[in-house]
Amino acid sequence: MNKLSLYCLLIYIFFAHNSFSQGILISQPRLKVDGNNLFIYYDLLAKNSTDRFYVWVELRRANGEKINVNSLSGDVGSEIKSGINKRIIWAADMDSVFLNEDINVEVNAEKYIKSFNRGSVLLKSAILPGWGQTTISKGKPWWIAGLAVYGTLTGGYLYHRKYLDSYELYKMEADPSKRSDLYDQSQKQSTISSIMICSAATAWAANILWVALIPNSYSTLHHVSLSINSSSGLLYEGLLFSFNLNF
Prior knowledge:
Helix content: 25-40%
CATH class of the largest domain: Mainly Beta
Radius of gyration: 32 Å
């Protein structure tokens, strides 16, 4: 029967990205051999249950030669959720490898980060239309649309003030002909004011809705990655602790 030993990793890391602290915990791995299948169990705990990870495995022989692995299944690959008793199964015989040789197994986990914080960009768009899109697009001048909305809103307010002034003059004017002209003028100003204010409000609301519906994809993986190192074979006994941090 094969003897199994572990290079174990128990690590708790907090790292910063975009001003947010992210907590990750990877437990000591558990290895089990069943025939020529190697079962790798691990716990992957995260600060938020919605966090997703990319998990991959690297295997090397005792002399450092990398083994090309094509027969992994289970909790490996993209979109891996956090949780306990995560399991990776390696069908070693499918990769022409036998578990009676010394093999180093490295399990790596890297957290996905959303491209943007939806709550933050919604707040920005509520303050200035286009600001949220500027943040999402990494600097494109969508905020110019916000200036246009503010300009239209200001114009609507000014026309409303003109309407009020014209209407006051209309009420004070005694000449019927001038009263009629002032009334028509005030109504035109009121209509223009309403159109401008409604247009600005519609554009503002549409911008917020736009931001709310933009798909939030994951950023390219380039954060701190965590790795678990284990080994199986006849020459390893006892427990060793190690970890890798890759930037």
